[in-house]
Design goal:
With 162 residues, this protein is α+β, with helices and mostly antiparallel strands. 30% of the residues lie in helices and 33% in strands. β5, α3 and β6 form a beta-alpha-beta unit. α1 packs across α2.
């Protein structure tokens, strides 16, 4: 747990989490989260099921994005990434919360951190893709102000203007 603590959060069940920015010292804990993540490759092929592809994907996210982690004691249980697209003034948002820790408010807290960071970076908008049948995620994104930008059957693009 080497990243700077941004806030702490007590979930609906009374568990306390530490939310932090990712730092290189967190690499092993983040990798362990994705190694144990189930099911793999269910949403848009992410996280990759293949170990080498997963490691390369984590490397890409942590080198090219602003990353936030949700910690329960010394274990990463959630990860959000904001990948800036400077030429367009926007950023892509991704979020993953391990199954046993979903529906506790962690997704909301991580999304708040990413949106706040996008504003600090001067971005005009944040976008994401979500499976059309992932109603829980869509509910979260709508609550945060994201709106649909297309009408895809399998995947939908949502955008938040800042």
């Amino acid at each position: 747990m080497s990243g700077d603590t941004l806030t702490t959060f007590v979930d609906r069940l009374g568990d306390e989490y530490r939310l932090s920015r990712y730092s290189p010292g967190d690499r092993e804990a983040l990798t362990e989260m994705y190694d144990c993540f189930a099911p793999k490759a269910i949403t848009q092929g992410l996280p990759p099921a293949d170990t080498q592809a997963r490691l390369a994907w984590i490397e890409d996210l942590t080198c090219n994005g602003e990353n936030f982690l949700a910690w329960l004691e010394d274990k990463v249980v959630g990860h959000a990434s904001l990948i800036q697209e400077p030429a367009r003034g926007t950023g892509e948002y991704l979020i993953f919360v391990n199954l046993p820790y979903r529906n506790r408010g962690l997704g909301t807290e991580l999304t708040h951190l990413a949106i706040d960071r996008a504003r600090q970076m001067g971005l005009c908008s944040v976008w994401l893709t979500v499976e059309a049948l992932n109603f829980r995620a869509i509910k979260l994104y709508k609550k945060m102000g994201f709106v649909f930008r297309d009408s895809g059957e399998r995947e939908r693009t949502m955008m938040l203007k800042l």
